[in-house]
Every structure is written in structure tokens, then in C-alpha cells.
Amino acid sequence: MSTQVEQLEAAIKAALERAFKAGSLSGQIPEAIKLERPKDRDHGDYATSIALQLAKPAGKNPRDVAQIICDLLAGTEGISKVDIAGPGFINITLNRADQAELVATILKATKDYGKGSALAGVRINLEFISANPTGPLHLGHTRWAAVGDSLGRVLSAAGADVKREFYINDRGNQMDLFGASVEAAALGNPIPENGYQGAYIADLAKEVVARNASITSLPEGKRHPAFREAAYALQLKDQQRVLDTFGTHFDVWFSERSLHDQGAVEHGLEKLRKQGHVFEEEGAIWLRTTDFGDDKDRVLTKSDGSLTYFSSDTAYYINKRERGFDICIYMLGADHHGYVGRLKAIAACAGDDPEYNIHVLIGQLVKIMEGGEEVKLSKRAGTIITLEELVEKVGVDAARYTLIRYPVDTPMVMDIDILKRNTNENPVYYVQYAHARIAAVLRNADELKIPVDLAAFDSSQLVHDRENQLLGALAEFPRVVQSAAELRQPHRVARYLEELAGTYHGFYADCRVLPMGEENPSPLHTARLLLCASTKQVIKNGLDLLGVSAPERM
């Protein structure tokens, strides 16, 4: 299913091919034709700067190039007018009736409208959150839980084969310290220095003992690992429960231990050795990551033979690639800026293209305000506020939408008071209300027995400027989804929905959708109702990509 934009791009390319064949233009046809929506609708429905791009290789004035293209586009089906503006911009106005056919396209495609094939055939491993199984998920994890899940949906909508993966950091000193903290709480002993604090540790200790009363009687050498493993299993299960409530789901829960137990670390080291980037110095084994832009070489195996955490990083990346993933996306916290260079260096050392095979997204911090003051502490974890506590305050929809609507590389502030209000300053309410408002209009139409059926649709009825603006906004949705996927920026979908909701409210204010009083239903009423229905469908599709509900009533 080609979109209006794709059809217009194809028409421009066809015109250029004719111009090149006739010899009136020379150079090379760009692979992509950039089209933009003019802010002023007097400048048409779409504008392109293609003439300015082609002027220099063609050896012509940009306006002359624009004139050649305009002459060839004139009379093209679906285009009513082509103008030249400024130094050589081409403004294109679509035939109103043809543009209105978008309504039928959307209502026939239903949930598939907006999906595309830009990433078809690409296998993507999307790893996010990957929290230590040593405590509740906190605010930083919450941002990734929302953004990561939405990014997975957007990538899938663009045609990619996506697997969402949670890397369980279940190996190392932090696991031993976690187990020792729970054990100390169970035995009534002081928590170890630098151990884990918070009410959740005491809760875990009670549950571990309740499930296995004899655990406290085990010899010390067996009691330590028994507490560690029991607490680990309970905490991981709790993280999974909370994420499920939040609507965030994973295809793979990958244990760090499995890398070591299955020989993946040794296998990865051998592969890197064959690539020629491993060297030994002072009894340690190193990876020469400085060859690929890292600020220093990295130790894989210490002089005492113990493996570094970096060795797990290298093995994990190689493991992902050997599972058949073309692109590995890592979503890391604000304190992981230093990882970008070393992860890309790992890819390069493994013989991959670090600009294609690996993408690293760094998320910035989230601040929560309530009653004009910053909320810093979690009652349960004793540290920063948890995912579960945030959901208790504002609900899943408000939390997810707000966390997604900002670019991840910018710090953000969540105002709890605003998110509790049913007003237009609450962005999730603003978008959901547009959906519910349309649902109410369609229910009213049903009560009035007005047909909302494509068989009765007359696209020539939709000629009002507000209708045209709304149609233009609906036509943009597939491009928004594609750009959100390609740029790894799901916030683009949220911002688009806010603009669409505003455009719909403007249309509804100026265009009467239902008949008044004794007025008989007309083809115009039917056409406008179908335009409403198509808008409702696009809002729902967009909210689905964010993992946010589309209520029928509010």
C-alpha cells in the first residue's frame, strides 16, 4: 500500500526521468525526494527543493530547473496545481477529491495504516532496561521501559524483525552483596558495608524464610549462596511482574551467567584473537580498541586469569550477532556515556561496521515534581522513586506517554499534578480526549441512523480548508512512523498525535459534522463522519505504538 507521499515522490521521479531522457536536465536523480508540508496552506499541500539540488549539476538557474519539472508534473493525476516560489521551490497542490480518498485508504487498512517496509528484512536486537536483579526498578529504568517498548513497536511497524531483550546482570560481586544483605536481614544482623538498603530487603528476607524455613539453619558455606539464589529468583520475578503491569514485554531474558556457563566468553575471545585485535601485556589479555576510536585499550583477562566485565560485553555482542541479528541496539543510562566508544570498538574489532551493526542510545535523567517540590525518595527502596510508585501516582497511560514524548537524550521533568488533571495541558489527556470525542460523535451518528459507510463516501464533498488540513495531517502518519523507526525516536509519534489532535479539534470547531435540528443528513455529513472515523483510527494506531490505551469514553 503506497502512501500519498510515496505516490507524489514517484510522480516527481517519473518527471525527472523524462527530463533526463529528453536532455533538458543532466546529473543524477536523487535516491530520495524530500517533500515538506508548508506551514502556510496558500503555498500548496507539499513543497520540494529538488530544483535547487539539481541546478548546479544541470548548469541551470534553479527557477529554470523548477519550470522544467513543473511543466512535466502539470496534468499528473491527483495534482491540481504546481507553482514556483522564491529561488526555485516547487509548491504542489493536490486535487481535493483525490486527497480525500485517503479516508478510504485508512478505513480499509485499519490497524495497518502507518505500517511500512523501510526496515523489511532487517533483524534487530533491542536490549533495554537490563537492570541488576538486586532491587526494584527505579525511575531511570521506567523511562527505558516506556521508550524501549515503544521503539520496539515502531521498528516492527517499519517492517523490522525485532526481538526485545533484557540482559540479566546475575553474576559478580553485586549479586553476592545482594544475597548477603538479604541474609543479614533474615538473621537480624547488620547489613554489610555498602550493602543493599530499603524496606524491600526486609520483605525479601521474610519471603525467602517463609518459603524455606530451614535456610537459616544451613552451614554458612551453603547458606550464603542459598540466600543469594532465592532472593535473586524472587527479585527477578517481581521485576517481571511490574514490567508486565506497565505493558512492557520481552522476547528474551538473557542471563549473563549463561555466557560463562556455555563457553561464550572463551568463544568470543577466540574470535577476536583471529581478527588480530587481541594482545598480551604484563600477563593480561587486552583488546586493542584504540584502533577504532576508543580512548584506551581494554583488558579482557586480568594477569591473575580472572575475566573482566568487559569480556562479558564483548562476548554478549558477538553472541547477538551469531544469533543472526543485523543491528544491535543498546539503550543505556545517563552514566554510561563512556560505553558508546567501547561498544562501537567491540563491533569494529569483531569485523562489523560500527555505524550500522551497533547503535547506542543514552537516556538522560528524569525529575519528578509534586506539589511544587521534587520527589526524590522511594518509600520502599530507600533510594529514588520506583516504577511501581510512579504508576500508583499517575497510572500506566500517563506515565508511559509522558516518558516517551521527550527525546531520550534530553533531561525531563514530570509534573505529577499536571498528569492528574483532565485538561489540555495534560498531553496524554489531550490526545486520548480527541479519540473519545470522535467515538462520541460516531455514536451520535449511529443514533441518528446516518450511514458511516465507505459505500456512501463522496470524496468530492471534502473541500473545506480545515478538512484539507486534517487530511494532510493524516497523510503524514506513515512518514512519521518511518522516521521514528529509522532515527530511533518514538517521541516523534507522540508529538505527531498532539498535532493531529489539535488539527482535529480545529476541524470540529469549524466544520459541522452532524445535522442540526430537523436538517436531513447529507453526503457532506457522511463524508465528514468518515473523515472523523479515519482520524480516530490513526490516533488509535499511534497510541498503540506508544503502548497507551485509546478510550472510547472519558
TrEMBL record:
Subcellular location: Cytoplasm
Span of domain Arginyl tRNA synthetase N-terminal: 6-94
Position of sequence motif 'HIGH' region: 131-141
One Gene Ontology cellular component: cytoplasm
Signal sequence extent: none
Catalytic activity reported: tRNA(Arg) + L-arginine + ATP = L-arginyl-tRNA(Arg) + AMP + diphosphate
UniProt-listed Enzyme Commission number(s): 6.1.1.19
Enzyme class: ligase
Entry-linked SUPFAM superfamilies: Anticodon-binding domain of a subclass of class I aminoacyl-tRNA synthetases, Arginyl-tRNA synthetase (ArgRS), N-terminal 'additional' domain, Nucleotidylyl transferase
Highest taxon of the lineage: Bacteria
MF term (GO), any: arginine-tRNA ligase activity
Gene Ontology biological-process entries: arginyl-tRNA aminoacylation
PROSITE patterns named in the record: AA_TRNA_LIGASE_I
Keywords: Aminoacyl-tRNA synthetase, ATP-binding, Cytoplasm, Ligase, Nucleotide-binding, Protein biosynthesis
Pfam families reported in the protein's UniProt record: Arg_tRNA_synt_N, DALR_1, tRNA-synt_1d
Chain ranges of the DALR anticodon binding domain: 431-554
HAMAP family: Arg_tRNA_synth
Assembly behavior: Monomer.
Protein family (similarity comment): Belongs to the class-I aminoacyl-tRNA synthetase family.
Name this protein carries in UniProt: Arginine--tRNA ligase
Species this chain originates from: Candidatus Planktophila vernalis
This protein's encoding gene: argS
